[in-house]
Automatic annotation (TrEMBL):
InterPro entries: DUF8129. It comes from Actinomycetospora aurantiaca. This is DUF8129 domain-containing protein. Residues 5-56 form the DUF8129 domain. Residues 49-104 are annotated as: Disordered.
Length: 104
């Protein structure tokens, strides 16, 4: 069975949220069933269920695209972590005994 979004199982949450905007209700239902039987990623299911509710209330598929990649980097679970935002490393730890000053 071919899914309406290529490589769906490996997309981070932000990409899923963007891409499902272009789907109709039947296509979205197909993805929800697939996710429930395969990955069962709760955040992904929540986003898809929220979009399904929007479609049921009259929303139309919009400009979400299948070739849009809003996230660069990140983790396989959808975290927008970017290594360039990491703190600079501090000085190396000193080896030996630490001098302790006791107040009196």
């Amino acid at each position: 069975m071919s899914l309406p979004i290529p490589d769906f199982d490996h997309l981070p949450l932000g990409s899923v949220a963007d891409r499902i905007r272009a789907l109709d209700l039947d296509q979205l239902d197909q993805l929800i069933a697939h996710e429930q039987s395969m990955g069962n990623r709760l955040p992904v299911l929540e986003v898809m269920r929220a979009r399904r509710e929007q479609l049921e209330q009259g929303a139309e598929p919009s400009s979400g695209g299948q070739d849009v990649h809003p996230e660069t980097g990140g983790t396989s679970h959808g975290s927008p972590v970017d290594p360039s935002g990491a703190a600079e490393p501090g000085p190396p730890d000193r080896h030996g005994l630490r001098q302790v000053t006791w107040g009196g």
